[in-house]
Amino acid sequence: GKEPPVHDEL
Amino acid sequence: MNIFRFLGDMSHILSFVILLLKITQGKSAAGISLRTQELYMIVFCSRYLDLFWNFSSLYNSFLKVVFIACSSAIVYIIRFKSPQKDTWNPELDNFPIQYLIGPCAVAGLLINQDWTPFEMIWAFSIYLEAVAILPQLFLLQKQGEVENLTSHYVAALGAYRGLYLMNWVYRYFTEDDYLQRIVWFAGTVQTGLYIDFFYHYYQSKRGGLSRPVKLP
To answer: Is the pLDDT of residue A10 over 70?
Structure first.
């Protein structure tokens, strides 16, 4: 399954 | 992290510093749109809900707290603190922000990176940030002339997202499978809204004289 999106920016 | 994103964050912090100095030292919020500040508070409080589980970097977590604190403080000062609250003119600063929040909420529901509540809220905050400056630009338009500090505030705010655009270009060419269509689109719209202001800002500052920025 697709891993949840990681938000690495503000 | 790259230089564009770092400079973008510094420009964003600078915009907070300028605005906080203006309303605390200048004891006046004249020319500042409370509506825009309220939108930014909504943007940060919604986007940074992941403070509690996304520890991608201490730098991010620290600035998320700073941005939530600063935007909340600014709204509090302009809304409740004297004498600033008396310098806010509800007749002038009357942009119907419900027409910004509504469509952004619908867009967040429909176009996001994952069908989870947080991702919908996150997308909403990205779209809302893109248009949050509108009440401020409308207020400046009505006033025709822009006070010096306010012009630097808006310029720093516009530069922050413009630098982020460069950061996304840099990441696109240097990282594999880096794809962020939502922020790319919203960031382009956001920066586009400043182009007219930047033109007048540049014209007024070009001669080195600090002639006031005039908007037609």
So the answer is: yes
